[in-house]
Design a protein that fits this description.
mainly alpha, de novo design (two linked rop proteins), 2 domains, two-stranded antiparallel ribbon, elongated, binds iron/sulfur cluster
Length: 173
């Protein structure tokens, strides 16, 4: 009822990216009357954006926590007071995803395109050619019934091959 809701997500949803999505929403909805909400959430969004493109640092985690707490304590209305929740709760329950982005420069869900990488596991590939047929930039090489290989230089990380492969041979290392 009201503004309550439930969203079901899976391993293909990046929690850092989702937190960023909610901060973006807050930017649109904020009336701008008070500084914590108007400027604080903007700074949080910028930090999350940095993390999703692989430029985040461990110091950014501390900044997110401190800013989030300050905004919750000082924003004038419920919108600002709850705006940091997606960041604070993903930091609590999906901290490993933040670490993957910051320390390993990797997005486990493959949602942050700047960090997504795809590779074919030669042990699992049976050469069905499905991945090569859906690749929009033709960067998968291999003949039918032979192991296929992704040219990492040309790959644009669209994820189509990952979805197309029925043998779990396309992996996000
Ligand atoms: S917390 Fe409420 S009053 Fe303050 S800027 Fe945000 S929406 Fe406006
Ligand atoms: S779709 Fe999977 S099994 Fe088929 S060629 Fe590509 S990687 Fe190999
Ligand atoms: S992720 Fe997209 S561009 Fe990269 S190899 Fe797979 S299908 Fe091609």
């Amino acid at each position: 009822m009201g503004s309550g809701g439930m969203i079901v997500m899976d391993e293909d949803d990046c929690m850092v990216n989702i937190a960023k999505f909610y901060l973006d929403f807050t930017q649109d909805e904020s009336c701008g009357k008070c500084t914590p909400c108007r400027i604080g959430t903007k700074r949080m969004y910028e930090i999350l954006d940095k993390i999703t493109i692989g430029e985040g640092t461990m110091e950014d985690i501390t900044k997110l926590r401190n800013l989030g707490k300050m905004i919750k304590d000082s924003a004038l209305c419920g919108l600002g007071q709850t705006a940091p929740n997606p960041v604070l709760s993903t930091l609590e329950y999906f901290y490993d995803e933040y670490l993957a982005h910051i320390q390993d420069k990797r997005c486990p869900a493959g949602a942050c395109k700047a960090l997504a990488k795809y590779k074919i596991d030669a042990d699992k590939c049976i050469g069905c050619t499905a991945c090569a047929r859906v690749c929009p930039v033709n960067c998968i090489e291999g003949k039918p019934k032979q192991k296929h290989v992704i040219d990492a230089e040309k790959c644009i990380a669209c994820g189509a091959c990952y979805t197309a492969c029925k043998f779990d041979a396309v992996i996000r290392p």
